[in-house]
Specification:
The complex is a heterodimer of chains A (about 100) and B (about 240). Chain A has about 100 residues and is mainly alpha-helical. Chain A contains 4 helices and no strands. In chain A, about 85% of the residues lie in helices and about 0% in strands. The longest helix of chain A is centred in the first third of the chain and has 27 residues. Chain B has about 240 residues and is mainly α. Chain B has 12 helices and no strands. Chain B starts with 16 loop residues before the first helix and ends with a helix. Classes of the chains: A mainly alpha (about 100), B mainly alpha (about 240). At the A-B interface, helix 1, helix 2, helix 3 and helix 4 of A face helix 1, helix 2, helix 3, helix 4 and helix 5 of B.
Chain lengths: ~100, ~240
């Protein structure tokens, strides 16, 4: 019962948090500068998630060299305009090449 | 506010059904690699669902909470015996960052019926926002952009729910999730790198990296929100100077 109540409460609150901006922008509009800042902010959040996935979210955690290599390979391919499947595939291969012999 | 983004005169006009279907399919295709790349994370969430004291409620949370990190936070806190209100509050804070994505996406849905806005709000997360953001750079009518988003949201919801369900059944396989989890940063990386080419994009990404690294030991839990704020400020300042 507690899990149900928590899920329902979080679901309702999360929907409200996400719906309010839609209604507010409809009512007041969105200045172009604000729209630009929001695009950068959204990418900033995704960037932070990448950083935390690489270095670990714990205070004392250290980055895994195989993950660092995978992300380096993936970043290079993404920079050269390769698709996401290429980035994930080649990065995954680089990770496997370094981590599996160590295991 | 004069230059504020408002619904265009074509906002209420629908494209032809064939065009709508093509937009929907294109959105679903754009989201498909993200579903594959995020599958390991969905397996982790599924394992947490399977380990919950109420599996059905935890599984339903996949749709209601609609955010992997938030759902994982909620289930872990409840499993660890945290007070229910604390777990709810922390989880809502984890999902609070999504308000920024909603605000960014809102101009696309300006002038749309309320049910469209509710569906968009219920499904806006990093991958669906990224698909919509990429689509918004192309010249299109708002209805086409909405249908494109709907295709991405449906693909993401169906795919994510399927993998979470599999994860809840098979549970955590030792070592497998750790190895597969490398796909998550790679998938997100493919979303970030194209942004670097945009005006102010490099400044935004560098600011986010530095802030996340600096905030991680000092303010764990607030690192993503701080990185988000730093990127927004740095990116908009640099792009304004260039323009």
């Amino acid at each position: 019962m507690v899990v149900w109540l928590c899920v329902l409460a979080v679901g309702a609150a999360s929907l409200a948090v996400r719906l309010l901006p839609f209604l507010a922008v409809e009512r007041f509009g969105l200045p172009p500068r604000m729209a630009d800042a929001l695009r950068h902010a959204g990418t900033g959040a995704v960037t932070a998630l990448v950083v935390l996935a690489v270095v670990g979210s714990g205070a004392g955690s250290r980055p895994d060299p195989a993950v660092l290599l995978a992300v380096g390979v993936g970043a290079l391919l993404a920079w050269r305009g390769r698709s996401m499947l290429w980035v994930v595939g080649a990065g995954g291969c680089a990770y496997a090449a370094l981590s599996l012999p160590l295991a | 506010m004069a230059a504020a983004l408002r619904p265009s005169p074509r906002a209420g006009r629908s494209p032809a059904p064939a065009g709508r279907r093509a937009e929907f399919r294109a959105g679903a295709r754009a989201a498909a690699p993200l579903v594959v790349g995020l599958a390991p994370f969905a397996l982790l969430v599924g394992a947490a669902v399977g380990g919950s004291t109420d599996v059905l409620a935890a599984w339903t949370g996949t749709l209601l909470v609609y955010g992997g990190s938030a759902q994982l936070t909620l289930l872990q806190m409840l499993r660890d015996g945290a007070a229910a209100w604390t777990a709810v509050l922390v989880t809502v804070l984890v999902n609070a960052r999504l308000a920024v994505y909603s605000t960014s996406l809102a101009p696309v849905f300006a002038g749309a019926p309320l049910r469209w806005k509710v569906l968009a709000a219920a499904t806006v997360v990093e991958p669906t926002w990224a698909v919509a953001e990429r689509r918004a750079r192309e010249p299109t009518d708002p209805v086409g952009a909405r249908v494109h988003y709907a295709g991405a949201a449906v693909a993401m919801t169906v795919g994510w729910l399927a993998v979470v369900t599999v994860g809840s059944v098979v549970g955590r396989v030792d070592g497998l999730a750790t190895h597969l989890a490398v796909a998550v940063p790679l998938c997100l990386l493919a979303l970030v790198v194209p942004h670097v080419r945009r005006p102010g994009g490099l400044a935004a990404v560098v600011a986010a990296v530095v802030t996340a690294l600096a905030a991680r030991p000092l303010l764990p839990g607030a690192d993503v929100l701080l990185a988000m704020a730093a990127a927004g400020i740095a990116g908009s300042v640099v792009s304004r100077r260039r323009s």
